[in-house]
Amino acid sequence: KDARVHAKIDLAKLAVGKARYEKGTIVVDAGGGKLAAKVRVDQKAGYLDASMATGMQWGAALAPSLDANQPVQARLVAKAFRAAAIQPFVESAVPALDGRIDADAQATLVPGKPGAQIQGKVTFRDGTVQIAALGDELQDVRATATLSPDGTIKVTDVFAKGTQGELRAHADAKLDGTRLADGELLRVRGWQDERA
Length: 196
Description:
By secondary structure, the protein is mainly β.
C-alpha cells in the first residue's frame, strides 16, 4: 500500500503585515514516492510563483518522510512582488522591510551532500530596510543576486541610503550542497557622506 494526498487551498483577499494579496493558491501532491508543492500569490501589482519537488517515503506508515537520497528541486519566479509579505517572519531582526522582488531562479540539491546546482537571478529594488542591530532605516535599497550552476552566488549593485550617507557593496559566495564552501560574504566600499 502507498498512501496519497492531494490538497488545494485557495486564498482570497489575504493580508500579511502590510502586504495585501488579491488571490493565491497552494497545491500539495504526495504519493508514489514523490512530494510536490506549488504556491502562487497575486498582489495588485505583482506576483510570486514558487514550486518544490523531492522524493519521499510513505507506504503504509502513518506519516510520510522525506527521502534523504533524493534531490530537492525548487523554482522561484516573481515580478514586482512586495517584500513586505516577508517582514512579519523576520520582524525581530528586521523591524521594517518593503520593496519589490523580481526573480527567476531554480535550485537542485541533496541536503547534506555537495554538488548544489543553482541558476538564475533575484533582484531587490525600491527597498526600505531597518535592521534592529543598526537602528538606522535604509532607503532606496537595491541588490541583485546572480546564481551560477557551479554553486557560485554573486551579489552586485548593493546600494542603500541612510542618515549617514550612502552604502555601496558587493558579495561573493559558493555553496557546497547547502553549506557555504567559501567566499567573501561582503565587501563594503563604504559610506559616502552625501552632505560632503
